[in-house]
Amino acid sequence: MNPIRSIQRAALRRLLVVALACIGVAHAAWPVTVVDELARDVTLSEAPQRIVSLVPSHTETVCALGACERLVGRDTWSDYPRTVIALPDLGSAFAPDLEAIVALRPDLVLVDEYSGAAEALAPLGLTVYAGTPQRLDELFSTLDRLGRLLGAPTEAALLAGRLQGELDTVAAVVAGRANPSVFYEVDPSPYSVGPESFIGSLIALAGGRNVVPDGLGDFPLIDPEFVVAADPQVIVLADAPYGVDAAAVAARPGWGAIAAVRDGRVVELTQGQSDVMSRAGPRVGEALLLLARILHPGAF
Amino acid sequence: MGRRRLATPLLASIGALALLLVVAAGVGSVPIPAGEVLAAVGRGVWRGVAPAGIGPEAEATRVIDTIVWQIRLPRVALAALVGAALGLAGAGFQGVFRNPLADPYLLGAASGAGFAASLAIVGGGAFGLGMLGVPVAAFVGAAATVALVVALARRGWSLPIVPLVLAGVVVGSCLAAGTSFVLLAAREQAAGVLTWLLGSLAFASWARVGTLLPPVLLAAAVLIAAARSLDVLQLGERAAAQLGLRVEGLKLTVVAAGTLATAAAVSVAGVIGFVGLLVPHAVRLALGPDHRRLVPLSAVWGAGFMVLADLVARTVIAPAELPVGVVTALVGAPFFLLLLRRRVAP
Amino acid sequence: MRASADGSRAAAADDALLRFDDVVAGYGRRTVLHGVDLTLRGGEVVGLIGPNGAGKSTLIGVASRVVPLTAGTAWVEGRPLASYGRRELARRLAVVPQAAPLPEGFLVVEVVRMGRTPHVDAWRGPRQVDEDEVERAMRTTGVWQLADRPVEQLSGGEWQRVVLARALAQRPAVLLLDEPTSHLDLRYQAEVLMAARTVAAAGVGVLLVAHDLNLAARVCDRVMLLTDGRVVAEGPPARVLSPERLARAYLTEVDVFDTPRGPVVVPRV
């Protein structure tokens, strides 16, 4: 299939979706209610002006929706876009600085669904949205909900369209190419990623074959022997910022014989790249492009 | 002659604890002048936590009220109660095992709670329940584990100590392995499980304080009532029986009360180590071994130690927090050594 | 001897403070006592002698209900032992154990006060009469001046006397002493045994497990020689302590010298 034709077709499809979305939400009026991932109703009577985000990907999304200046606080790990670093650091989601959060008088607090932060913050009279995308499809539903909460449904729909377009474009470019097998290493235990996980979906879209089979969960611990037997053509080291490098991988018993090691296709991610890969947010296209370039060096 | 007073050290300790509570409530990541804190406390006592009206000044007052009443006071109160519970349980366990190295987690309460809580955290994440089921799961896990250990170790109606400790170690190891497996299988929630395992008071609330209060009071009442018998038990189980004590009933009662307090504390604050071991020991070294003083003072000192440890945990690297269990160990271990050295010195 | 089983009502009616009728007891499957008869009356000191493993401490355990009976009957003040509650029994019968664990940190007076446990109401706490009994027991055993000493600072002999004081504070009708002089030098051996005699003179029945046959001979009205869980001889010391009998029981030759104050036994080495 002609890649350019395919991109054009995809873009057209996106445009249509966006147009429909705009019509659908153009008259959205306050108050707005969305249901978060803890099945709680989150209701805002007007557009939030003081937002606290305790999730790095939400911080990125808020900024991508043009609401960056409405953020008044962030968690320790939120570092993109760079401007948010100037915001007060409110600790991690597992031990947030509750007093500092209350003192900021936020009208919306964005947290994940499993740390317990929602259960702690909601009784303090704060409006809390709990939920983070764990899968690629959840990225778009989350984007839609955050867009409505922020009073920016149109921007959210446009962003969704743009992101889908980016994904389609990369997918179209790599379509028809040979699919290299990949081992994506999260840490040297080694933990990897399952095919259903966010990163696993990106690997598939980027035209790679994840050597980790389905059914082991999103972040399974893998037997090193299994990796040697699977003989991946590419190894991606998301743990490179923590000191793992290609030489260390080659030195592991038996790993010297792996195709990726022999062919010099052990790729070390930077901290920034690793963050992009692990955050299901507005930089998903960047993440996919990064992966596609690693898997198909000649295509871009 | 030889009559050790309870009232003097108890009142002195309660006074010191009260002072510590005031200081702890006055310190936090948001600087609030002491006068403002006291005013907020006064407002809350005067009219409950009611909205303060409208306007920027009222808004500022409302923020201070929320911080003082909804965040600091419940946290300080929860820390005190958790410390009291662990101190009580430690005193009871050390008394019944006649061993100063016994601690509330000896019979597997911690590993049972840890395993159940990790399942609840992972399951809660999977089913979108968040952390709601975790305290209940932890409480049931802790209590059920100790019940299992007791059932495994008992011989008819008697509860021999050595098999009891061995069963505790074995069952505890199995459950710890189970927790490790859950951690490996669910990496996304690993941070949540680990935070819980290290113990945290970060999410304190009046609701949790209210849940913890009845079991701790009940355990305190039972252990204080058993104090004189625990003294006699220090003569050995056989001698205690020959002095008219129903030794097996006593052991079972104390283990049950200690487990109730431990399970309740663990369910709201996770596994906080060292308190139950250290506090009764410190009381014993300072004031002697008789349980009529040891039991109530372990509760008060435990409360104070925990409030202090939590104060350190939330201030040293603010806005980030140290796990309070790390602080209890870091503060506790050198203090413990100091006490031991002081004792071996003439 | 076998008649006692059907004469149990009669046994209950006699003046024995402690009585065993054909008592069989042991630990699990191991039977230690094979049908022991025993009578202890008020005012007498009865010595229980015999080689290691003969069942002397087990007998003390049976009498204080920490070792269960498998057959036979034991009576305390004419009532079956089994009919007593633990506290009730502890008000009638006290034990000085052979090796009492040291309750570290407790003061001497606190340990002696524990002897009042079966008398003290759990809610009301100790009364003046309890303090009086504690003082009396401590004076009798000569530990009154040690009252405020932590027990871990005592010598072995002092500790032994504290344990005796604790048992006396129980104000028992029956006092069971399991080798109470084993750690004591001569003076304190004499003091403890004199204390036992004083207690007996006040009407208490004293059963004394004795390693030292010569002390037993001096202090006891009667001695029982226990071998392999059976009573092989009973009577006044001068009659029981014969060279032949002792040689059979202890499996070694002994010389017995008669003195004006009773027999003296020396192993032949």
Notes on the structure:
The complex is a heterotrimer of chains A (300), B (346) and C (269). Chain A is α/β, with parallel strands linked by helices. Chain A folds into two domains: 31-151, Nitrogenase molybdenum iron protein domain (Rossmann fold, 3-Layer(aba) Sandwich); 178-295, 3-Layer(aba) Sandwich (Rossmann fold). The mean pLDDT of chain A is 90. In chain A, α7 (198-205) links the parallel β7 (181-185) and β8. Chain A contains twelve helices and ten strands. Chain B has a single domain (7-344), classed as ABC transporter involved in vitamin B12 uptake, BtuC (Orthogonal Bundle), CATH 1.10.3470.10. Chain B is globular. Chain C has a single domain, classed as P-loop containing nucleotide triphosphate hydrolases (Rossmann fold). Chain C has helices spanning 8-13, 56-63, 86-92, 108-114, 128-141, 156-169, 186-201, 213-219, 237-240, 243-250, and strands at residues 16-27, 30-41, 45-49, 69-76, 79-80, 93-96, 174-178, 205-209, 222-227, 230-235, 254-259, 262-267. In chain C, α4 (108-114) packs parallel to α6 (156-169) and α5 (128-141) runs antiparallel to α6 (156-169). Classes of the chains: A alpha/beta (300), B mainly alpha (346), C alpha/beta (269). At the B-C interface, α9 and α10 of B face α3 and α4 of C.
Describe the structure concisely for a colleague:
The complex is a heterotrimer of chains A (300), B (346) and C (269). By secondary structure, chain B is mainly α.
